[in-house]
Amino acid sequence: MHPTLIGVDVLFQGEKDEDEDFALTQAVRGLKSPIVFSCKLLNYDDAEMQFTDIIEPYFIKDINVALGYTNITDNMEKATIRELTLEQQCNGKRTLSFPARIYEVLGYNIKSYPQSLTINYLSMIFPKVNAIDVKENDKLIKDKIVLVGDLKDESDMHLTPIGKLSGLNLQAYSLLTLLTHKTPHIVPKIINWILCFILCYIFTAILFFVDKRLSSKESKFKIFLKESKLPNKVIPIIWFALISFIGFLAFSFYGIYFDIILILSVSVFVIECKNIYIGIKKAYNNKSTTKK
Questions:
Q1: pLDDT above 60 (res 290)
Q2: Which residues pair with 205 in a beta bridge?
Q3: 142 contacts: CB under 8 Å, gap ≥ 6
Q4: Residue 47, SS3?
Q5: Which one of 100, 152, 157, 197 has the lowest number of neighbouring Cβ atoms within 10 Å?
Q6: Are residue 71 and residue 37 in the same domain, yes or no?
Q7: SS3 at position 90
Q8: Per the structure, how many domains does the chain have?
């Protein structure tokens, strides 16, 4: 059905039935589309910072196929999966991950990428086709990257920011991250500090402008807002959300990374400084009134 590439997330570990093994080997040998099979790295040596063993398909000795490891980076702690590694060392050899190997077989250059990337869990629904329904779904296969694997194996389920996903779904999102990845442009520290100063100055001006408006020509509504201190709670929330959203848009669409944490942290400090300033001002005015 002429897929662009087939990625098989199944470990064919060891020979089983002679006839079935032979049939599978012949099927792999007869494939016309590019194909990548999965392997698994074992026994990580902390001192050497590499793996010392690997599980490969049994037919690797007879057929030269591209391999990529499918190890998930949850450190065996069932942690939320946020990153994919692109390569690891195994017995002194560079070994690519399953999505990285697919990316390379497709003709893209993986060498310029860092060792790991944050997985972009885009709003994407991957079409799923049961093995027995392949012939009826040729339009979903032709000229597409097709991943083969199990979607229901509970032992291969992993926690992600969007819920529990199968290992195959994780590989799909990881590959999609590579295919849509833009090299981020990290803004220099000095620019971050200048931007932080400007934004925090604007934030301070907004806070004091609102206070001034609430103090002039008091009405029942203004008295309510002033006494409830609602603006002091709502405005910072809107400001933090706006800054975060702008940072998200800059990174998502233009690949520009601002230090949003710095800006938000200093903005919190601005609020505290404002409260301290108002407290000192009231204490001073009260002292002056008492003397008179």
A1: no
A2: none
A3: 1, 2, 3
A4: coil
A5: 152
A6: yes
A7: strand
A8: 2
